[in-house]
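A further point concerns the way the authors explain their paired sequence and structure data. Nothing conveys this as quickly as seeing an actual entry. An entry of this sort, consisting of the sequence and the corresponding backbone structure tokens, reads as follows:
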Amino acid sequence: MAKRNMENPVTPNVTHSWVAVDEWNGLTSGDPVKVTGERGDFKFISAHIKEGEAISIIVHGGVYGHVTMRAFYPHRINRVTKRKKREQAA
């Protein structure tokens, strides 16, 4: 096995120009969301922001039995609103 030079390790030149945030567009981490074109229930985790615009939204969820973390474009994310209780007729 070749000997590695530990004095000058090779480091990749990686610069991230995006930032992950826990609050986006009125949503906070853990809020329920619906994803257009996807079945199942999802919860908002974070948003990746680049130059002031969201480039991807990270959610956790899916159909029963297949729950995972996924990333979607922002236009596919919809906030879940609480349903109004119906008044029963007397």
